[in-house]
Write a structure and sequence with these properties.
single chain; 76 residues; mainly alpha; 3 helices
Length: 76
C-alpha cells in the first residue's frame, strides 16, 4: 500500500497533469513555474510550522507533486 506522502505526491502530479492537458487543449497555453520559485515553495512547505515566515497550508507532498515537473524539466 502507498503511504500518505506517496499518495499525495501522486495526487498532486495527477492534478498537475490534468490541469496542464486541459489548458493546452482549450486555450493552447502551457503552465510553468520558474525553477527558483518552485524550489522556494517546496522549501517553504517543508519548513516546520514555527519557522514559516507566512502561513502555507499546503502539505509538502502535495506541493512536491504539483511542482515536480518544474523542478525536473527545464523549459526553453
Amino acid at each position: 500500500m502507498f503511504t500518505t506522502f506517496t499518495a499525495l505526491v501522486l495526487a498532486g502530479g495527477g492534478l498537475r497533469l490534468v490541469l496542464q492537458w486541459q489548458l493546452k487543449r482549450r486555450w493552447d497555453i502551457s503552465l510553468a513555474v520558474p525553477q527558483a520559485l518552485a524550489g522556494a515553495l517546496v522549501v517553504l512547505a517543508g519548513l516546520p510550522e514555527f519557522l514559516k515566515p507566512l502561513p502555507f497550508p499546503v502539505p509538502l507532498s502535495l506541493t512536491l507533486g504539483l511542482l515536480l515537473p518544474d523542478l525536473l524539466l527545464r523549459r526553453g
